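Exercise 7. Given the encoded structure of a 462-residue chain, write a plausible sequence.
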């Protein structure tokens, strides 16, 4: 099958979160299954020409190779993409995001024809690529080139929908007739993700539990009705993890490689992390790691409420993240108060993230909701025991055998579960069993990619 993957961030070219991990790994897993795959994404300022050996094919198009021979096409437009951030700067979302991403979507469809890549499937991800199915079934409807092309939309987080004022609609180049309840309209605004949901042939999300949750009022962010309407075309496929990047046996960023057989070497990484983080070098104190966007979704509301009580436990905390200013300030304050307990790193730092996954004993991820979550999958691989709230992909991957899981989203339950983990850490046998179960989990892309292939086949046969 010919498959075009369209995502606004792709590892190793640009990343702000899990979407990039998925969009980087899935194409390679599909290629291994014998499929012909290309990727199309915007060319941001940070995508370095020599590092990625870019080759120019048009004035505004260059490409790089990933996997074996997957071409990653970059759409250039200085006005839109030649800036530091992907979606925002310090003052918030870029004001011209609608113009930026609608341009990327339309140019992608033109490009497929220009390079004569006639896809069976265009697999679009999140709102930033959601206008592709819309353009395909409106502006490009009559073009014979796309007649057999089907679209799949993967929703990585329904909390991010691409909402814009109605007044910006004319810049999309679409007919006003589709600005209605069956189209892009959402309570008087433009909702780009909704457009993708209405116009794509198949919709999927990144875990089975989340695909059910988003059909409810609690998790649907107002789009539960649309999803209910399309429930026969809605599926859930758990993300895999790229084990060529996330593997404690080969990871180049960590101080000592290890496996289950050489698990004692994990503790060199703990010591290394404690040193880097200027924490006391105690191996008998459990070290909890956090690598996360600092947002309410990730549980930072209950976490900040619980902070003082957590810091009274006999534990250490290493936190790496960026996000809401509110949480930056709260965490800075707590770190000042408990400098021997917390080590705070308010930045995006991939090498440090690897060190935290390897050097921590446990990984905190109390997300209020979590479509799939990669942090817990990575930590399982590194024998770092996840402690999570039972929701979405966390509920599908963490259980009492390989981690700690609480069922009521509250500060009290979070603290209680942390205390349980601290107590379990003292019991060597129990902790070793958790590590074994965690490291034996297999969430490789091989399985997930096979599920995607089935979904593509289903779309094709429609
Ligand atoms: P999200 O909702 O942010 O996509 P996921 O758990 O699906 O959450 O994926 C987050 C990914 O981003 C993981 O690979 C995680 O290690 C990484 N990550 C998050 N914050 C940082 C950071 N500050 N520095 C480095 N990596 C980070």
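Solution.
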């Amino acid at each position: 099958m010919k498959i075009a993957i369209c995502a606004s961030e792709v590892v190793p070219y640009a990343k702000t979160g899990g979407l990039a991990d998925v969009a980087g790994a899935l194409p390679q897993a599909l290629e291994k299954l014998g499929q012909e795959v290309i990727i199309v994404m915007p060319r941001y300022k940070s995508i370095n020409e020599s590092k990625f050996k870019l080759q120019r094919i048009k004035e505004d198009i260059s490409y790089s190779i990933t996997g074996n021979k997957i071409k990653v096409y970059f759409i250039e437009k200085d006005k839109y993409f030649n800036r530091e951030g992907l979606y925002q700067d310090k003052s918030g979302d870029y004001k011209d995001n609608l113009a930026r991403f609608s341009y990327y979507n339309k140019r992608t469809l033109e490009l497929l024809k220009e390079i004569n890549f006639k896809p069976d499937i265009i697999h679009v991800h999140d709102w930033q690529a959601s206008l592709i199915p819309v353009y395909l079934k409106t502006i490009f409807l009559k073009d014979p080139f796309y007649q057999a092309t089907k679209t799949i939309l993967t929703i990585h987080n329904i909390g991010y929908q691409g909402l814009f004022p109605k007044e910006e609609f004319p810049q999309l180049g679409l007919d006003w007739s589709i600005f209605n309840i069956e189209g892009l309209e959402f309570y008087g605004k433009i909702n780009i993700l909704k457009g993708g949901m209405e116009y794509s042939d198949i919709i999927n999300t990144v875990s089975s539990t989340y695909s059910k949750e988003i059909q409810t009022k609690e998790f649907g962010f107002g789009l539960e009705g649309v999803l209910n309407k399309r429930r026969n075309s809605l599926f859930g496929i758990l993300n895999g993890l790229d084990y060529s990047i996330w593997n404690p046996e080969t990871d180049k960023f960590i101080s000592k490689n290890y496996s289950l057989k050489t698990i004692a070497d994990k503790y060199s990484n703990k010591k290394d992390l404690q040193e880097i983080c200027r924490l006391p070098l105690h191996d008998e104190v459990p070290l909890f790691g956090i690598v996360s966007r600092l947002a309410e979704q990730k549980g930072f509301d209950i976490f900040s409420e619980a902070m003082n009580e957590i810091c009274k436990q006999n534990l250490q905390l290493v936190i790496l993240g960026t996000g809401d200013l509110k949480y930056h300030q709260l965490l800075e304050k707590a770190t000042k108060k408990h400098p021997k307990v917390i080590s705070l790193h308010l930045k995006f730092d991939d090498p440090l993230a690897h060190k935290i996954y390897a050097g921590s004993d446990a990984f905190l991820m109390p997300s209020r909701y979590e479509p799939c979550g990669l942090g817990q999958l990575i930590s399982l691989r590194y024998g770092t025991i996840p402690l999570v709230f039972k929701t979405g992909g966390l509920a599908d991957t963490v259980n009492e055998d390989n981690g700690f899981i609480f069922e009521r989203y509250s500060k009290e339950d979070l603290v209680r579960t942390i205390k349980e983990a601290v107590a379990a850490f003292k019991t060597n046998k129990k902790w070793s069993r958790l590590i074994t179960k965690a490291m034996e989990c297999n969430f490789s892309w091989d399985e997930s990619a096979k599920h995607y292939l089935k979904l593509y086949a289903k779309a094709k046969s429609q």
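Remark. The domain at 260-441 is CATH 3.40.50.2000 (Rossmann fold). Students should compare their own answers with the one above.
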